[in-house]
Design brief:
The complex is a heterotrimer of chains A (123), B (494) and C (616). The longest helix of chain A has 32 residues, at 79-110. By secondary structure, chain A is mainly α. In chain A, 67% of the residues lie in helices and 0% in strands. The longest helix of chain B is centred in the middle third of the chain and has 30 residues, at 158-187. Chain B is globular, with a radius of gyration of 21 Å. Chain C has 616 residues and is an all-alpha fold. Among the domains of chain C are: 261-493, no CATH class; 567-614. Helices cover 71% and strands 2% of the residues of chain C. Chain C contains 25 helices and four strands. A two-stranded antiparallel ribbon of chain C has the order 1-2. In chain C, strands 3-4 form a two-stranded antiparallel ribbon. In chain C, strand 3 (533-534) and strand 4 form a beta hairpin. In chain C, helix 3 (69-93) runs antiparallel to helix 17, helix 3 packs across helix 18 and helix 12 packs antiparallel against helix 13. Classes of the chains: A mainly alpha (123), B mainly alpha (494), C mainly alpha (616). Chains in contact: A-B, A-C, B-C. The interface between B and C is large, with 73 and 58 residues.
């Protein structure tokens, strides 16, 4: 059981970090604006996963107070990261929406989606 | 107490929802209500400052959850001073742009004013909040309204600027979240005072890692050197007054956040040196880049970045004199740079690329605006008797008292460059002949009032700096006293 | 209200009111301008004494104003010249554009100079110094020619000086905890050796820029010749003296206290001697009267600096005396050039000729001032130069004597050139219409020329305040003993004895002139330059007999190797190189959003690498 938990931990944290790296890779190397936005999105998801993982507790229950479960309070998962992640997801969604709308405008304005061709503003 | 710090956040957010509704009934309300809200915020900050200077810091608890669990807003002499400055500038920006897009659509002006209001609210929120996740949320509010405002003009290259800003901002917010989660996982708290108290318990490696992530994230908004590629683009492409809002409000909030980290949350001595190094590099690169600009707003943008570098340096000195100097610089920069952006926008009004050469001979056509721009230039160079001199003197005195002789020399040498590029523009305004036939735009009366207000402040502070030195002094004492901050927040209502 | 503050407020409010009064009428503006210059001068000479002191306290600094004997001496120069040049200005600016702008900056710079002299602490000193700088900068670019080059050059050099000074000021504050000049003087001997050298050196850079000391002089020829002449009279006569004023303080109250000071004093004296020699050569080469006088000013300032830097009591007297005299005769000369420029429209020595009969008063002023400049007795320049030579010889600075002697002899060449170029030579039709300048311009010039005669014969008029100033620095009382020990005065016994001899000579001269004039009056007729015949050939009307082009070519060829290398060129190419470098740094911002993100990642990695250092 312990071993299983370790593997789970590694898997969760590992996949979070992996997602972040994939996202970062996409954002930093891909030339297409869409792919960059996707990369940023994936980067965000990785962070969200990390946040959830931090609040995770083995055998934890949902962090809901009710009359019956006072004794279970010690095994509740930490509610704060979940609250935070909800906020973060909403913000991330908003940012992605703005990003996509900007991409549309960029495409109309420049007729290209390659980021290295959109550099009228420099120096 | 006349009001509560919560109103700084609650009223504008409420207004942001109401404005579209009232706009259906009375179109002008979309312009007037944001102004009323900003004026109210400014008045509130003044009245709270009065209260604070008598009774000490106000710690406002939201929804009855006491710190460290609940979110709290801290209105201390330091945060209060910044709030006052930001809301004042917010109001000035509103006043300047009141007639903005008057003859065009109702829709864009509604968006503009709502976003402007949110930008100010978010910045004030960053300063007031006592909770790092809350700070993250406010930073995102500022960023998103910033993206919106940047891409406001559809005919310019604004989408490009906004996308760059968004790109950097998204990466920054990711790292900010990671840093916050590192802190939370180690210390189990999000309250700044509580974190500051528990910080010695944290593992050194994670401490460094989280601080580095914080600096990366906040550095994007604070426009420190390698992270500020987006800034000149945004300043050029956003509507004129928004440049002033960025330079005067948003960057100030970001600098506040980084200062709060280093002075209050973390207990690293080396972080101050980091501030000096980053500040110095930012200052040098930005000022040298500004020297070679051929577009007015880009020049102002780089100059603004450079000034922020100087603020970082001043904070990095780490003594009370340093903090005093930094706050004075922030104040002056906010006022002067807004004045420059305001008057500069009219000098290159209606010009497509806004080259510096477009200001040629404007002294004849726009006399008052030109004089104000000149006053602003002289002030930002630090020539007496304008206000910029006193802050520059404060920085140098603070550096000299800490025996940083080389730092003084570098700051002064770079300041010469600053003088050069500003005077080149001023010379053009008065001594070159206007070549093209494009129409000059006379400033509207409200814009003129806003500019003259700022100009008068520059002169008055220049002649009588003691008007604000009391505020600055209290603010500096407040920031330096970390123990007091922790005590005040954590012992609220106990 | 303290009288010094009152005067300052008068200046600054008066400047602004004068600037805007042009909207009412030009006459009101002129009158206001003169009132704003005259009233403070009157107030100053009647109301201010050594005990007047006033303090304005700010949280950052305390501004202390008061008068010292030294500043009284320099105020004589500033206030006197300001009023005289003020009257001249009204005449010269009559009908010009941007009068309000010019008057504003004129009064501001005078007020700032007064403020500098009255400052007893470094902060107010620096504030007024900077106001003086930007006000004079705005006048330098007044005529709109070459503003980006000349104006920026002036400002950058001024900024280098001012910032060096500012650095010294903050260092002083960090050591003594105060901005007062007296506190620096009292704590100077207790500082570390490094600071003892660094602080005076930085201050001297600051003062050296305004006093046009090589290699900080590169702004001066352009700025002096580009400003309107009515201001250049102030610029060269009074504003450059602010640098001298600061140097006197540094040399007498700081560097003379420590043994290492001798090194800096020698360096400065040498630089000043080289400045004097080379700028004299450059002055000889100029064909434009403005630039000629500008270079000549730099050279003359060189003598003054030598005197101050050597630091024996007599050399200081010589330096301070020359400072006053230079203010008198050089302002008069600039005014002369201004008058010629106003009447003929040019200041090119090769074009304008034969004005002597058309502008006789101007010629008279020019003649007397040039005699004073050249140091011919009995005019004021002679007394100062003699004392300078004597003090240099007595203090064993033989090489410096040679340089100074060389340059003051060579100065005769350009003196002659300016006199000949404008006033002598053939009368040409082109200038037939030229009239004498208006009286309001003539009177200040004549007053100044008369003062150079008076001061040449009665030097004790200003030797007295000089002596008071020197005694305030702890030097021995020289009035009536040391200065008359100069060979110059010994020859004729006591100090006053000089005058009767002079006047005796002059009387004889005048009597003989009058005698000749009356005796031959009926037989005189006007002889033009064409009224001759060469080899039996009669000169035609259009032929030119006088040549004002290419003066002194053989001499200039001989000294060419010295003049080949110009610091100016080196500095400009350095500045250009720096700008090109910045062109490179701005390419960091290459416009690609992704690159910026990569910068962010690099920044992150660097921070992580040095993360350990963060722990402090």
């Amino acid at each position: 059981m312990e071993k299983y938990l370790d593997i789970l931990n590694v898997a969760i944290y590992g996949s979070a970090v992996l997602l972040m790296l994939i996202g970062l890779y996409g954002a930093l190397t891909k030339k297409s604006l869409i792919k960059i936005v996707l990369g940023l999105s994936i980067l965000d998801s990785g962070v969200h996963l990390l946040m959830i993982a931090i609040g995770y507790l083995k055998d934890g229950t949902a962090p809901i107070f009710s009359a019956g479960n006072e004794e279970k309070m010690s095994v509740m998962v930490d509610p704060i990261p979940q609250a935070l992640v909800l906020t973060a997801i909403v913000i991330g969604f908003g940012v992605t929406a703005v990003a996509i709308s900007l991409v549309i405008r960029l495409y109309r304005h420049h007729n290209t989606l390659r980021i290295d061709e959109i550099k009228k503003l420099k120096w | 107490m006349v009001g509560s710090p919560v109103l700084f956040v609650a009223i504008p957010l409420l207004a942001a929802f109401i404005i579209p509704l009232t706009g259906m009934i009375w179109k002008n309300s979309v312009r007037i209500i944001p102004g009323l809200v900003l004026a109210f915020m400014f008045a509130l900050s003044i009245s709270l400052m009065g209260y604070v200077s008598e009774h000490g810091t106000i710690v406002e608890v939201i929804a009855g959850w006491k710190p460290p669990i609940g979110i709290n807003l801290v209105f201390s002499p330091f945060t209060g001073f910044l709030t006052m400055l930001m809301t004042f500038l917010g109001f000035m920006v509103w006043l300047y742009s009141y007639k903005f897009k008057r003859n065009v659509d109702f829709e864009p002006s509604m968006k503009y004013f709502i976003l402007l209001m949110l930008l100010v609210t978010g910045s004030v929120g960053i300063v007031l909040t006592g909770d790092i996740f809350n700070m993250f949320v406010f930073i995102e509010i500022v960023s998103i309204s910033g993206y919106g405002l940047t891409s406001f003009y559809t005919r310019r290259d604004s989408a490009e600027a906004a996308f760059k800003f968004l790109f950097m901002g998204a990466i920054a917010s990711t790292f900010l979240l990671i840093a916050i989660m590192i802190i939370y996982s180690q210390l189990g708290t999000l309250n700044i005072a509580d974190i500051a108290e528990k910080m010695p318990l944290m593992d050194n490696k994670l401490k460094v890692l989280s601080l580095v992530f914080f600096i990366l994230a906040i550095g994007v908004e604070a426009e420190i050197f390698p992270l500020n590629g987006w800034a000149p683009d945004v300043y050029t492409q956003a509507p004129g007054p928004i440049g002033a809002a960025f330079a005067g409000i948003v960057v100030k909030a970001a600098i506040y956040a980084s200062v709060r980290l280093v002075y209050t949350m973390y207990d690293f001595g080396g972080a101050f040196d980091l501030f000096i190094i980053i500040g110095l590099i930012t200052f040098i690169v930005a000022e040298t880049t500004a020297l070679r600009q051929d577009r007015l707003k880009r020049m102002l943008a780089y100059s603004s970045i450079g000034q922020m570098g100087l603020v970082m340096i001043a904070f990095g000195i780490g003594t009370k004199e340093g903090v005093y100097a930094a706050l004075f610089l922030m104040f002056n920069h906010a006022i002067i740079k807004s004045l420059l952006f305001f008057s500069g926008s009219y000098l290159v009004f209606n010009k497509k690329n806004k080259y510096i050469k477009h200001v040629n001979g404007m002294g004849k056509y726009l006399p008052i605006t030109s004089v104000l721009f000149t006053i602003g230039s002289f002030a930002i160079i630090g020539l007496p008797p304008f206000s910029g001199f006193w802050s520059k003197l404060a920085v140098l005195t603070a550096a000299a008292d800490s025996k940083m002789v080389i730092l003084i020399a570098v700051i002064l040498i770079i300041s010469i460059l600053e003088a050069v590029y500003y005077l080149r523009v001023v010379n053009r305004i008065y001594f070159f002949d206007k070549k093209e036939k494009t129409e000059t735009q006379k400033p509207s009366i409200n814009a003129l009032i806003a500019m003259i207000c700022l100009g008068i402040i520059v002169l008055v502070i220049g002649f009588y700096p003691d008007l604000i030195s009391g505020y600055l002094d209290r603010a500096a004492t407040d920031l330096m006293d970390k123990g007091n901050y922790i005590k005040e927040v954590l012992t609220i209502n106990k | 209200m303290n009288i010094i503050i009152l005067i300052l407020i008068l200046f600054f409010l008066g400047a602004i009111i004068t600037a805007f009064s042009g909207k009412i009428s030009a006459l009101v503006q002129d009158i206001l301008f003169l009132i704003v210059l005259v009233v403070p001068a009157v107030l100053f000479f009647t109301g201010v004494d050594m005990n007047t002191e006033s303090i304005i306290t700010f949280s950052q600094a305390q501004l202390t104003f008061g008068m010292t004997p030294l500043s009284y001496y320099f105020s004589l120069i500033v206030m006197g010249l300001a009023v005289l040049a003020g009257f001249y200005t009204v005449g010269q600016m009559n009908g010009k554009k941007r009068k309000g702008y010019y008057y504003l900056n004129y009064i501001l710079s005078i007020g700032a100079m007064f403020g500098i002299l009255m400052s007893k602490d470094f902060i107010s000193f620096f504030i007024f110094w900077e106001i003086m700088t930007w006000a004079s900068y705005l006048i330098v670019i007044y005529n709109g020619k070459n503003v980006q080059k000349i104006g920026i050059k002036y400002f950058v050099m001024s900024a280098i000086g001012a910032y060096a000074m500012l650095m010294a000021i903050v260092l002083i504050h960090s050591i003594t905890g105060s901005f007062l000049i007296t506190d620096l003087i009292s704590e100077y001997t207790g500082m570390t050796q490094g600071m003892q050298l660094l602080i005076p050196a930085l201050l001297l850079i600051g003062f050296g820029v305004k006093a046009a000391l090589m290699p900080l002089h590169i702004w001066a020829p352009d700025a002096y010749s580009n400003a309107p002449m009515s201001y250049t009279a102030i610029f060269s006569g009074a504003l450059s003296k602010m640098g001298i004023y600061g140097m006197v303080i540094v040399f007498l109250s700081l560097l003379s206290k420590v043994p290492e000071g001798a090194l800096i004093r020698d360096i400065v004296a040498w630089l000043a001697a080289i400045t004097a020699a080379i700028s004299t050569l450059w002055a000889i080469k100029q064909d434009d009267a403005k630039r000629l006088l500008a270079y000549s000013s730099i050279g003359q300032l060189g003598y003054i600096i030598i005197g101050v830097a050597i630091g024996t009591p007599m050399s200081i007297i010589a330096g301070l005396f020359l400072a006053f005299m230079h203010g008198v005769f050089k302002s008069a000369l600039f005014m002369v050039v201004g008058a010629v420029e106003k009447q003929t429209g040019t200041t090119d020595l090769t074009e304008v000729t034969g004005l002597i009969r058309k502008m006789p008063w101007t010629f008279l002023a020019a003649l007397i001032s040039i005699i004073a400049l050249a140091g011919i007795p009995p005019l004021g320049g002679f007394v100062g130069k003699w004392m300078l030579y004597e003090s240099l010889i007595l203090s064993d600075h033989f090489m410096l004597v040679i340089l100074v002697f060389f340059s003051s002899t060579a100065a005769f060449l350009y003196c002659y050139k300016i006199l000949f170029g404008f006033f002598l030579g053939q009368e040409e039709k082109e200038w037939a219409h030229v009239k004498e300048a208006p009286a309001i311009m003539i009177v200040p010039m004549v007053i100044l020329s008369i003062s150079s005669i008076v001061l040449g014969t009665y030097p004790q008029l200003i030797l007295k305040p000089i002596n008071a100033a020197m005694m305030s620095f702890g030097l021995p009382d020289t009035y009536g003993n040391l200065w008359k020990e100069s060979i110059l005065f010994n020859k004729w016994g006591n100090q006053i004895a000089l005058a009767p001899i002079m006047y005796g000579i002059m009387l004889v001269f005048v009597i003989v002139t009058i005698f000749l004039f009356f005796r031959n009056r009926s037989r005189t007729r006007y002889v033009t330059t064409k009224d001759i015949s060469t080899s039996g050939e009669i000169i035609k009307e259009h032929e030119n007999l006088t040549f004002s082009r290419g003066f002194f070519q053989p001499f200039l060829r001989a000294v060419e190797p010295v003049m080949k290398r110009q610091i100016d060129k080196y500095m400009l190419s350095f500045a250009k190189g720096v700008e090109d470098l910045f062109e490179f740094t701005r390419r960091i911002y290459n416009g690609n959003g992704q690159t910026y993100a990569i910068y962010a990642m690099i920044f992150l990695i660097i921070l992580l690498m040095f993360g350990k250092n963060l722990l402090g």
